[in-house]
Amino acid sequence: MNSRCAFVSKVIPFSCVDGPGSRLALFLQGCNLRCKNCHNPWTMGRCNDCGECVPQCPHQALSFNAGNVVWQAEVCEQCDTCLQMCPQQATPMAQTMSIDDVLRQIRKASLFIEGITVSGGEATTQLPFVVDLFTAIKADPQLQSLTCLVDSNGLLSETGWEKLLPVCDGAMLDLKAWDSARHIALTGRNNAQIKRSITLLTQRGKLAELRLLVIPGQVDYLQHIDSLAVFISQLGNVPVRLNAFHAHGVFGEASEWASATPNDVQQLATALQQRGVDNLIFPALYL
């Protein structure tokens, strides 16, 4: 039995967008970035039971009990009213799950998935849980064939990666801007550690995918295309996924930003290809 727990935002039993093949995706609550363009902004913070959402719920799915906000799943209509108004950028629907709880969910789906991806929020803010979960999967005869991936922002320290990599099959990382000042403007943090993480994971053969998010007028990839292309080329033949920003589901000023068009993505792709970066994955759709 393993009772180590994590604060979980959502479990998707069958996902085809969180890594290769069909995967169970586990979204952990809490993040150490504050990306303006985040499509899961309610996964950033932790509910502090302030209760502001309780009287605003149009379906009475939220209540107070002993000073805690309680969510009733059977009443909830998933209208997202509580998510959009939460001052903590959190969700009252997050739940505490033990490793045994998660393993039970994985076993139910195990015949139909190729692996598990732990995402967020930021998965590595609950690193001991992720390490123990992956260790348990590798030790389970029914589950050990599943691949264990993390979808990370890359802020984890080298010491943290050393703990995770022995039981992790790969990591998918975003490089949200090249220049550190631009990265701070978009996310609230600089990107020095993120670049170090990308390099470390490549050296260990564990960088499954590098992601670049095209946001017209906001990102600086083209302004620093030569430096960016040299950096990517040094990673070897790592797949580079070009994602197209869309404003759907985004809160705050980013909801007014222009969505990326196929032409925006192609412009970056062409510039990278001209500099020898050609292992590119294009968006499956544009909104």
Helix content: 25-40%
CATH architecture: Alpha-Beta Barrel
SSE sequence, one letter per element: EEEEHEHEHEHEHHEHEHE
Number of helices: 8
Averaged pLDDT, please?
Answer: 92
Strand arrangement within the widest β-sheet reads 5-1-2-6-7-8-9-10-11
Structural class: alpha/beta
Question: Explain this structure to me?
Answer:
By secondary structure, this protein is α/β, with parallel strands linked by helices. It has a single domain, classed as TIM Barrel. The chain has helices spanning about 80-85, 100-110, 125-140, 160-165, 180-185, 190-205, 225-235, 260-275, and strands at about 5-15, 25-30, 60-65, 70, 95-100, 115-120, 145-150, 170-175, 205-215, 240-245, 280. The strands form two sheets. The protein has a nine-stranded mixed sheet. Strand 6, helix 3 (about 125-140) and strand 7 form a beta-alpha-beta unit. The mean pLDDT is about 90.
